[in-house]
Design goal:
Helices cover 0% and strands 53% of the residues. By secondary structure, the protein is an all-beta fold. The protein is globular, with a radius of gyration of 16 Å.
């Protein structure tokens, strides 16, 4: 299937400049050197304490709570006031928004998907039952709970393990192997306009 297998626990954590958390970059495409201009980026963050979120002009963001009690996200202009406290419920917002994150009850982990507006769009879905993931220009399947059978892969996808397609991915059949299971599917597609 031409997918790269990734164990999130083996990715090197990078501390935030403000010291409030760590980021593990899963994958990035189109990075343009020091400018940090990417087409898309997927990462996991460990948020340890209250902190402002970095602004990413021209970027659409999606955040998903993985573990912990979550965060309250508030924009300084009052347009956004969202409690990210329901695990595995994707929340989308514009990267321009200057957000302050307040931890609800201790550290939490989240998945972040960012796409450069005009270059890529993202679809982030959570599956708990068998599903076929549609083709995409790039894709990530991340097992959160339980083991998952994925397409023609011989070994099941274990919790906090992922399959990454950096190039076009075919439709992929997925099936949980355990009673309590959850899988995040991220599809990244070229933005072909409306």
């Amino acid at each position: 299937m031409n997918a790269e297998r990734i164990e999130l626990g083996t990715l090197a954590p990078q501390p935030w400049k403000n010291g409030a958390g760590l980021t593990r970059e899963i994958a990035v495409a189109g990075e343009a050197g020091a400018s940090g201009a990417f087409d898309w980026r997927i990462s996991c963050a460990e948020v340890a304490r209250d902190a402002p979120f970095s602004a990413f002009p021209g970027v659409d963001r999606c955040i998903v709570l993985l573990r912990g009690a979550g965060l309250r996200l508030r924009s300084r202009d009052g347009a956004i006031d969202h409690r990210l406290t329901t695990p595995l419920a994707p929340f989308r917002f514009a990267g321009e928004a200057a957000l302050d994150a307040t931890v609800v009850d201790g550290p939490c982990d989240d998945l972040n998907v960012m796409t450069r507006r005009g270059a890529f769009t993202s679809e982030v879905q959570v599956h708990r039952h068998a599903a076929t993931i549609d083709e995409a220009d790039a894709a990530l399947l991340l097992a959160i709970d339980g083991r998952w059978s994925v397409g023609g892969e011989r070994a099941p996808l274990a919790p906090m393990h992922a399959l990454l397609w950096r190039a076009p991915s075919p439709p992929v059949a997925t099936r949980p192997l355990d009673a309590a299971a959850a899988l995040i599917a991220v599809r990244l597609c070229h933005d072909r306009g409306s």
